[in-house]
Description:
The chain has helices spanning 45-48, 132-135; strands spanning 35-40, 64-70, 80-83, 87-91, 96-100, 111-115, 120-126. The protein is mainly β. The strands form two sheets. The chain has a four-stranded antiparallel sheet, with no helix packed on it. Strands 3-4-5 form a three-stranded antiparallel sheet, with no helix packed on it.
Amino acid sequence: xxxxxxxxxxxWNTEEVPEGSEFDDTWDPREQPEYQILFKQCxxxxxxxxxxxxxxxxxxxxxxxxxxxxxxxxxxxxxALDIQDKVLDxxxxxxxxxxxxxxxxxxxNGKARFLSExxxxxxxxxxxxxxxxxxxx
Length: 137
């Protein structure tokens, strides 16, 4: 058995721990709510009719990610939501959702709204990819 770390008191390498694992709670009995991830892009007439920009219908050309989470029998005041760059962590008294997001997001400038008549939380996050300056001139 060979230890890779310089410091022999550490029991694992930080590279071995997956991102967002600090939120994992396998002993929590709350069930996971239904959710769906949608992508949204801003298009104008030059995109739709003339095809003048580089945009296409793929998720690579979408600016926003919308996560719709069904929360039946939940009040707005019971929802605890934490958003990191790659992780969405939602907790209510009955439900728990730890979602590893498909893209990095701008965690500081998202929007969330609770649609009480639909019992759905709608979270809109700006996707933050490395080469977006090329896609969105």
